[in-house]
Amino acid sequence: MPLTVNWSGVFPAVPTQFKDDFTLDLSATQKHVEALLAEGIHGLVMLGTIGENCSLSLDEKVAVLKATKEVSGDSVPLINGIAEFTTANACETARAAARAGVDGFMVMPGMVYNSDRRETVNHFRTVAGATDLPIMCYNNPPVYRVDLTPEMFEDLADVETIVCIKEAAGDTRRITDLFNRLGDRYLIFSGLDDVALESILLGCTGWISGLVDAFPRENRLMWEAATSGDWVRALEIYRWYMPMLHFDSHPKLVQYIKLTCAEMGYGTETVRAPRLPLVGEERERALKIVRESAATRP
Q1: What is the structure's pLDDT at 146?
Q2: Other residues' Cβ atoms within 10 Å of the Cβ of residue 69
Q3: Which of 35, 49, 53, 281 stands the most exposed, by the fewest C-beta atoms within 10 Å?
């Protein structure tokens, strides 16, 4: 039998804050986490894509997790993103994060290499073997090039600690395919902001969100409307929200979301290279969307 976890609701994928010299700004990261908790979010995902996982050393990752645990305590589940180039490094990261006090993991396929079905299943099975904490598998083939198919989740169904799927393929048909093939074996979370409402309608019980980092109150309004069956209200908010929700599916989602957060008073735009902050027309176009949205918020 799979582990039972209390994962449901909106889990922000929280940005990692940096100082002007690109060192970690742990106090600023904590301040953002505290603001999100005050707005009633249901869980935290640290060091996902938006947390710039691949731009941090293992020691820095542990420092971020410990700092987050200091302010979140046991109030909500604390999930650590694992995005490593090798399976061995993913296992090492999982063990270090467990010691830092996390409650579970959001595991991505091995970075860069486009693994096949056998290799992909082995990666997730091996990482699961390195910890007894629950695992969410992150499927985002447009970004990470490896598609975690329903057949792969059938292969992994005997791994009791793999409990959840973050589905971010962008094709909501996949959600129904997963339920039809696997029933209730896995929790399924929406993993892409601009298909979130459709995903909730199709049965997702959670949402890993990026734009919630900048608009936690409005995000909660939409979630509560949808999960209470007030689809007219949920759709009204969703349509207002959509121009910004599209940021989450942009290749520069980290820069777009950090810019949006900074504009709304949460943290700064600073990112680590090779990422660079948005400039010129691209930045002004994004700011126009954010400012118009802020002025017309529900």
Answers
A1: 95
A2: 18
A3: 281
